[in-house]
Each structure stands twice: as C-alpha cells, then as structure tokens.
Amino acid sequence: MRDLAVRTLVRTSRRHTAHRPAPPAAAADHHGGIHLTVHTLPGADGATTPLALAQATTAAPTLVHRHVTSTATVLLALLTSPRHALGTDTHSVGALVRLMLGATPAQVAPALAPAGRTSDEHWIVVHGRHNPGRSTPPPPTGDDPAQLATLGTALGTPYLSIDGPGLRALIPSAPDTRPSAPAQAADLGWSLGFSAPAAAPDLPGADRQAERALQRAIAADAPAVVHSSDPLSLDAIVAPADAQELARTRFAPLDQAGSPGATVLLGTLRTWLNLHGSWDRAAAALGVHRNTVRHRLARIAELLDVDLRDPGVRMELWFALHWLPDDHRTHP
C-alpha cells in the first residue's frame, strides 16, 4: 500500500506547476487477493506535505464505495489543507477587514495569495450557472458548506460564492496560466466561464470576461468556456465610450416599460438571445413559463420598435447588450 501511495504521489507531483495545485489522482492495484486503492487529496496549496487516502478491501469497490471515497477525499482536503481548513483562514479574514476599512483589492490581494507565491499574483475569475436540465438536483440556496467545499476543492480555491443557481470564484494563478474546467463541476451540473488571468486592479474587466464566457458555455450547452482575446474583434475597432452610449440609447425606451421593469426585460432578452431564440430553453433558464417569455419579448419589440424575427435586429441588440455599462448590466 505504501509503495502504491508513493508512486501515485510522485506521478501527481510531476503534473504540478509552480502556480497551481496538483490535480487529484487515483491508482489501483491487486496484491494477494486484496484490492488496493489510493486517492491523492486535492486542494493542496503547495506549502504542505502531499497526502493520500489509501484503502485495502477484499472485494472490488462498487459505485457506492467510489462515491463515498470521493466525498471522503473532499472532507479530508478541508481538514488537512491550511487554505481550506475550517475556521483557520486568518489571511482571508484579515483581507476582509482591510477591505471593509477602505483598502483596495490590489492592496489586499497579496494576503490572499498561497504561500510561496511571488508578488506578481494574478487571478482567474470564474462565473457559473447550475443547469436545471441536468439530472443533478439544484444547489441549495445560500452558502451551503457541502456545495462550497465540493466546488472549492474542484476549482482549487477557497474564494467562491454560491447564490442560488449562480456561482462566482477567484482562483490564484500565474500570468500565463490557461484555465481548465474540472470534471467534478460538470458532474454536479454546473456550466462555467473562465476569464484570462488578471492582476488585482484589472479584476472588473476579468469579471466581464468570465460572464461572457459563461454565456457562450450556456448557449453551446458546454461544461465550460475559457475567454480568448481576439485583436480583430469588434470591441477593438469601436471606442468603448461610443459603444456604451449606443447601448444606453438603444435600450432607453425600456425605462417606460412598467412592470416587470427594464431590468427583468433586459435579462429576458439576454437569455433568449444567448439560447438562439429558443422559447423553451429561455423559459427553463429563467424559471418562468414560456408564455411569460413570449409576452416579455413582445413588450420589448413594441417599446424598441423592432422585429425580433430579423437576424440583423438580433445581432444589433446582442452587441448593445454586450456594450451595456456595468451600472445597467443584468444577468439571467
């Protein structure tokens, strides 16, 4: 058992980089009729000795055994990793106090970086949405400890928040890190959008990147999408101030909408366009009846004086939503 554990930890350490925790790994072997299984603990911060969970059984592990073992590795990671240890994350508490007393994100970011990192710390922003169409049950509302522990361990960060079907997270990274989606998140029914690595002062822009990546993941029904920069994109040739003014002007008539209000109408339009004009998928994503979606879009078409059946109109409105300033931005 010890030899199998050592070989597995060595194999895992070879996949470890200086900027990201080693991904979890597992190995199995047979010896004298005994089934040996080793699981490395995920979520290590690189400053502590790597650990593994080892099992020896006389019968081959069943599906139930594997699920129990997966849960055990998550709980052990919480108990053994300083970055995830319950009630001992003094760095996060100190950073929160400093933020509440007027510090900027750039000033507190070094306190949140894992041990041994350089001062050139970058962050990957993650946006997530639970897919109601998948077989897994919807996540509990609020900061459910089990949900936070599972997703935090899968993403390799303790810095995340779950609000109903929505998720946001910050992952410490190096400037040249390429984000990757953990399989556990997809198994739990989450679609994820990843930003490019960004320094603390640039986090607002990374937040917008993650949201746009998430919307592309939802539209494509993909587990995750990573933001990619294209210097020849429309954003590169339209001045930001002009784009925002266009968006404000385009949607100004919605301020006269009355109930349910411009915010709800914009969110409905964004979701419907993201899902390629599908009434049923938009209704499911918004948690309303498909006739409600139809009614809202009819009201939008009336107020904006447009024909939503026209692909050109849809394209124009999509870019206007993309350019909408942060103080008007809505999420489905």
UniProtKB/TrEMBL annotation:
<dbReference type="Pfam" id="PF13556">
    <property type="entry name" value="HTH_30"/>
</dbReference>
<dbReference type="InterPro" id="IPR025736">
    <property type="entry name" value="PucR_C-HTH_dom"/>
</dbReference>
<feature type="region of interest" description="Disordered">
    <location>
        <begin position="12"/>
        <end position="31"/>
    </location>
</feature>
<protein>
    <recommendedName>
        <fullName>PucR C-terminal helix-turn-helix domain-containing protein</fullName>
    </recommendedName>
</protein>
<dbReference type="InterPro" id="IPR051448">
    <property type="entry name" value="CdaR-like_regulators"/>
</dbReference>
<dbReference type="InterPro" id="IPR042070">
    <property type="entry name" value="PucR_C-HTH_sf"/>
</dbReference>
<feature type="region of interest" description="Disordered">
    <location>
        <begin position="128"/>
        <end position="147"/>
    </location>
</feature>
<feature type="domain" description="PucR C-terminal helix-turn-helix">
    <location>
        <begin position="265"/>
        <end position="322"/>
    </location>
</feature>
